[in-house]
């Protein structure tokens, strides 16, 4: 961005109530950076009618989320971080600065933050169609998502995750891929939300809270649930569960169903082994593409393999989904043990220490005492997606 266009963008944002009083640097560049980053608390109060309940969109593990309207007409979503972060304001804003550079059409766009005293907030683009769980788990609404839309969502989430793992300025392991973290835009295109949140809360128990509140143990890879061992394949496992949920319109665990059907992964495996994979398809769907549906079931199972090495990476997954000629390997029994086990630890960082251009060990050890080690090259299968990003 040239200085002039940068200045104009700043000016537009200032007019919208962003940045007032927040730029502390004397340097023009730093000032531009700061203006790009900060929202004024008062502007957010006005935009959200003083965080009124009427504007509340929901409440997750990190705090409430409010809809806001800026003076320039832009709709925003403000996440008030009620979990106390031990990070100081400077570290927090540094992390936000980094996350602002993480942009892709299948990621919810972070617009900036607000830090005033102990209060910290994140400001996102507003997405009008709520989250995926709102549709797929509701029999009245699930029909809104026909097969073509569902397959597009499966594909879009794969693209977003591939970007986070392979192409973002810093590698990001999401750690909380689940239906409520997939938001839908006005055309029902998917956008992954809450990426990078773990990085904003280093050393905190926030993720434990998040999981407890939203009950997302069912998405967790066994090695992560049992040993706190974190790698990009942790996200792949959660993505696999999500794919099966999208195909079936069922939650990963449904205690109301008979025992053999209650756990989605076990049930899918049973159907697959019996050659009845298509029986999994959501009965509320009037039509579906059987080839795509069968492939999605197989892919979901592959992503949920017990052995980390048997799970494909997001590059391969994207290739499997987009190529007509790709033959998927046959999956073995998925990893079931430990997914519902007690959560014992948290990671100190969801990012690797290396940047996108370096060689990479694709795993971080989230718990002291875990002995699992996995190494693989980040370029095991390279595939360009420059045209797919923002
Ligand atoms: N950018 C956004 N645009 C529109 N709605 C949003 C946005 N971000 C969040 N929401 C809504 O707010 C609700 C709460 O979001 P939040 O991320 O806090 O909770 P969650 O996803 O259920 O749990 P978690 O804290 O584990 O992510 C979501 O279900 C979603 O409907
Ligand atoms: Mg969320």
From TrEMBL:
Record field: compositional bias (Low complexity): 344-358
GO molecular function, one term: ATP binding
Annotated InterPro entries: CR_Ser/Thr_kinase, Kinase-like_dom_sf, Prot_kinase_dom, Ser-Thr/Tyr_kinase_cat_dom, Ser/Thr_kinase_AS
Family annotation (SUPFAM superfamilies): Protein kinase-like (PK-like)
Domain of life, per lineage: Eukaryota
This protein's UniProt keywords: ATP-binding, Kinase, Nucleotide-binding, Transferase
Gene3D superfamilies: Phosphorylase Kinase, domain 1, Transferase(Phosphotransferase) domain 1
PROSITE patterns in the record: PROTEIN_KINASE_DOM, PROTEIN_KINASE_ST
Stretches that traverse the bilayer: none
Start and end residues of each stretch annotated as Disordered: 330-390
Occurrences of domain Protein kinase (ranges): 51-321
Entry keyword Zinc: no
PANTHER family: CYSTEINE-RICH RECEPTOR-LIKE PROTEIN KINASE 3
UniProt name for this protein: Cysteine-rich receptor-like protein kinase 10 isoform X2
Organism of derivation: Prunus avium
Top-level taxonomy: Eukaryota, Viridiplantae, Streptophyta, Embryophyta, Tracheophyta
